[in-house]
Specification:
Blueprint lengths: L3 E6 L4 H11 L4 E7 L21 E2 L2 H7 L4 E4 L3 H13 L3 E4 L6 H14 L3 E3 L5 H14 L5 E7 L9 H13 L20 E3 L2 E7 L5 E9 L2 E9 L6 H11 L5 E3 L7
Parallel strand pairs: 1-2, 1-4, 2-3, 4-5, 5-6, 6-12, 7-9
Antiparallel strand pairs: 7-10, 8-9, 10-11
The chain binds NADP nicotinamide-adenine-dinucleotide phosphate.
Length: about 270
Amino acid sequence: MEKTKIILAGPRGKMGSEALRLIQHTEHFELVACLDRKYAGMKVKDLEGLPPFDVEIFTNPQEVFQHMHADVLIDLTSPEVGYTHAKLALENGIRPVVGTTGFTVEQLEELEQLSKEKGLGVVIAPNFAVGAVLMMQFAKWAAKYFPDVEIIEKHHDQKLDAPSGTAVKTAELIKEVREQKVQGHSNEKETIDGARGANFDGMRIHSVRLPGLIAHQEVIFGGTGESLTIKHDSYHRQSFMNGVKLAVEQVQKVNAFVYGLENLLE
Ligand code: NAP
């Protein structure tokens, strides 16, 4: 079996370093280059705490995508650069698997368009944990019967975007089936701005940021005399790696834009 040649963007990050370990332990994956914002010309093995890959680090995305032969880009960086990386990868015939969150609707639409033009697969997954994908699907199911819903997402305090990509994706899925309504009393007033959280189609999303947390979400539905809570916790970043592996394998088989890991699960 031919190995899948991978460029990884963000190798020193919390997710990126976990993805390096995934590649290290997956027989049919091969790391060919890393894209970082520093350490150009150094090798991954030269950086403390990372697996000993004898693979070069680039800081110029154009250069790495043009000069390194690769099948897939895994991007685990930040919203500002992740979009550019995915776009450049596609322009150079490399299929992006993007875990980076915080893209705008316009950016997602542009990547979808480019994927169509190039006939190349793209997987963008706000959450690679299978349990989180199920939590989102269960929430969508419940929203048919319980239109009163609020989402509480909790993450570590180094996270750059809020609300989380998972919370936004959950709200989008719920919106597909939920009878539209504005949550809370019609005369409700916030005495402190933001007290009621972000408003997505009348649903409220609350973002908690604390050290010690990884990635957690509760979707709370309220009914007459009852409530239903659907909850998922990622206690370790390994929880995302089965999803990353699946996405890298599948992105080479699909020639379309895939948004959400649920579209790759049976
Ligand atoms: P992190 O620890 O801050 O890692 C991000 C890495 O990207 C850092 O090493 C950073 O370098 C690097 N970086 C910044 N600018 C870059 C550039 N121009 N080129 C290359 N690398 C660059 O963050 P994280 O927790 O790993 O999360 C990374 C992304 O994945 C975030 O968007 C997060 O929301 C998302 N995420 C997704 C999932 C999922 O399942 N889809 C799960 C968890 C997190 P510096 O340290 O030098 O800035």
